[in-house]
Amino acid sequence: MKTARAIPAALLTLALGFAGAMTGGQAEPQAAGPEPDLAFGAFQRGLYQTALQEALKRVAANPGDAPAMTLLGELYRDGLAVRRDPAEAAKWYRLAAARGDRQAQFALAIAHLAGAGVEKSPVLARQWFEKAAAQDHAGALYNLGVMELEAEVQDARKAAAFFEKAADRGDPDAAYGLAILLREGAGVEKDRARSLAYLRKAAEARHVAAMVEYGIALFNGEGGSKDETEAARLFAKAAAQHSAVGQNRLARLYASGRGVKVNIVEAMKWHILARAGGLSDPWLESKLPGLSAQERVAVEQAVQRFIGK
After folding, report:
1. Per-residue model confidence (pLDDT) at position 10
2. Distance of CA 113 to the CA centre of its chain
3. Is 206 left (phi over 0), alpha (psi -120 to 50) or beta?
4. Per-residue buried b or exposed e for 226-240, using 16+ beta carbons within 10 Å of the residue's own CB
5. What pLDDT shows up at residue 6?
6. Residue numbers in the chain where pLDDT is lower than 50
7. What is the pLDDT of residues 170-224, one digit of tens each?
8. DSSP conformation class of 30
9. In the chain, what is the straight-line distance between the N-terminal and C-terminal CA atoms, in Å?
10. 162, CA 20 to 30 Å: which among 19, 189, 260, 286?
11. In angstroms, rounded to a whole number, what is the distance separating the alpha carbons of residues 161 and 147?
């Protein structure tokens, strides 16, 4: 197995996370004082109506309660207990951001990138990312790195510095991004050992692309002992997250008995799913005609079970 080549520009599709304004799609727990944070606790448990009511109570009692404002922004952004309203979400984020809440600053930056309820403006997005990054917000640091790669004049050196700071604060996208830059020698000295270390860090945080890349490295024995069993485990995790590459690699291992026992039904299941995801494989395809009628039924059932999850 050869490592799929990627260049720094490929990182851009990973970043600028429009799907969620908060790292992991969740607001950070923030203490509003010595009292228990009932609003955030309700939000974490999925009690969104209670979270809304508690957050509104807090803002009414304290017009400077930035964490409560940020939580209201989350509720309106995602349409939780209220009608989805990006403009209303941005209003609450702006109020909280002006009061120094780094999560709100990050969320407002994301809104400006997407033009969600606010003016679409990379300039304003960068300004808010910088404010959040100044408070060690990992997602903001990561996105600043991506913006350096996206700029008309790319600065991979600055991007690598931002990625490293974000990765060391636990951001898996940044760890993966830095691993790619280290592998390519873009903005930093080429260092395969460090690249693999950050790749492993991202893979352990369940970053799908990193799991595939690190699995390939383990399969090939890069940077240490060859471990086909661990590679298969990582491919399986990525495959379960709908990675076509992970599905293809896992199918090949099941077909050849590398890292796992030979299982033609599992091999063809993952091959069919990878093929549906746009990744063809003539070698695996050539094995389909040799399936028995019973195996064909088993493969079809296995694919349907996966799709139905």
Report:
1. 45
2. 17
3. left
4. ebbeebbbbbbbbbe
5. 34
6. 2-27, 29-35
7. 999 999 999 999 999 999 999 999 999 999 999 999 999 999 999 999 999 997 7
8. -
9. 30
10. 19
11. 12
- CATH code for the domain defined by 8-26+35-204: 1.25.40.10
Rg of the Cα trace of the chain? 23
Per this entry, what is the length of the chain? 309
Distances from the Cα of 275 to the Cαs of 81, 172, 206, 285, in angstroms? Answer: 39, 27, 23, 9
CA distances from 130 to 60, 200, 249 (A): 30, 28, 40
Angle between helical axes of 48-61 and 66-78 (0-180°, round to 10): 140
- One-letter amino acid at 56 equals L
Q: Which helix (H) or strand (E) holds 290?
A: none
Half-sphere exposure of 183 (CA within 13 A, CB side): 23
Structure-token match 């008995």, residue found: 257
Tokens 């950050």 belong to residue: 198
SS3 per-residue string spanning 159-174: HHHHHHHHHCCCCHHH
Instruction: Quick: pLDDT tens for 163-172.
Output: 999 999 999 9
Domain with CATH 1.25.40.10 in the chain: 8-26+35-204
Q: Give residue 36's pLDDT.
A: 53
pLDDT at 91: 98
**Measured distance CA(83)–CA(298) in Å, rounded:** 44
In 3D space, the residue among 123, 103, 104, 105 whose CA is nearest the CA of residue 113 turns out to be: 123
pTM: 0.83
pLDDT of residue 280: 96
